[in-house]
Fold this protein.
Amino acid sequence: MLRPASQRFRSCIGAAPFCAAMLLLGAAPAQAYFKGVQHAVTTVNGLSVDQYSWYDSHKLLRTVSLKQEGNGNPGHGGYAVQMTYQNGTSTVTVNAENSSDGGFGYFVSHERYRDFTDGSNDTIAHKVFHKDDSPLGLSFPAVGQMLGTKSPRGAAHQFTMTYHHYGTIDPIPKNRDGSDVRPTPTDPSKLALYQMPITITWVFQGGTDYPRIDYAVDLSQVGEADRVNFDVRGPYGVMVFDNGADGLVDTAMWGDRFHFTTTTDPATRNSTWTWSEANDGARYSALTAGGYEMGLFEPKPFAKSALADAYADERGSTSAAYNNGNGCIGETQLIPCDWDWPYQSIQYSLSYDDNNAPTNFKKMAWGSSAYYGTGKSLKRVYDTSSTNEPLRGWPKNEEIDYSLCLVLGLTTTDGLTRDAAATHKNCASTVPK
């Protein structure tokens, strides 16, 4: 039987990983559990961080370390570089991948491909200005601050930054099928770079397992609907979530209107899959590796989701039934076409030279329709050739708001994230002040 936190703390030897993590709290663990969340400015993996620590639903310690902007750190801050949780009495450590997109929680957004007056199809950023149409949010300066919450058991940390997208000066509405009513000009004088302030708020709450990340995308500086078109993929990043093993990804799974899972282990481009079982819970996305899992879920039912899905021809089918069992139409692979995955995941990490090759690169991100920034001309978007979802591409308050819960733990038979999404609970629910 697991002893009370206060007894475990008194018998702790500081050299043990579990004890070392508890000592970072700066208060007795029993007090920390009942008070909610502790904050400390410390150093993790050579980086200055704001570290938040709390006791979860099993009265086991969890931490999230958020990289600070400046304070001796290279590059920019505004995202998680380490997370830990307890598996019994041992500590599972989740570190940022040592790569250009290592870390987690930063914002990324892709411009929508358009038809241009010269007959080409591309993004404005790439075609006209030769710029990245989906820059990583970790490359932008961020301003961080602690926030109070409306619950004494909670804590919150907010980052603000300014993202951008190219768009047209004259708005281009959509037809009912989502096509632009006229081509996009190639003349740079008819195009503009629009600033989009982003607010990212991490919320922690004692007694829950999963922190919540809130996103707000401010469209007010765009000024008018139908100038820009983009999707949202934050939170975004790569973490080694299998306790340092950095092993192969066993399974990719997600939920939108239907549950999706690869059914061969490890996941490859030739993996079989199902995407046809109705999902009565929330949207989610997850990866598993070596018995560990990392995932995201929206803390509300699918029918009340804040965002609309992108189109996917394979949605509602299986690898055996879709395209007569021949897989993606347009790419030689059995798994759904890369551009049809509703959430960015491992699809761009798998080898294009060997369809049977797995990957250990554990990218995870959210996803949405690419029509955000669109006004009243497009109120619904197709998610298959015969079904559609409501779209609020230009909210009345000129701000796109959504929240996601971050899951870490040992995987379960159906998937830890899928289990959490079924009830959309056990996630921080307190509200920042």
User: Anything to note?
Assistant: The two ends are 39 Å apart (CA to CA). Helices lie at 5-10, 17-23, 29-35, 124-127, 416-423. The longest helix spans residues 416-423. The CA atoms of residues 282 and 309 lie 13 Å apart.
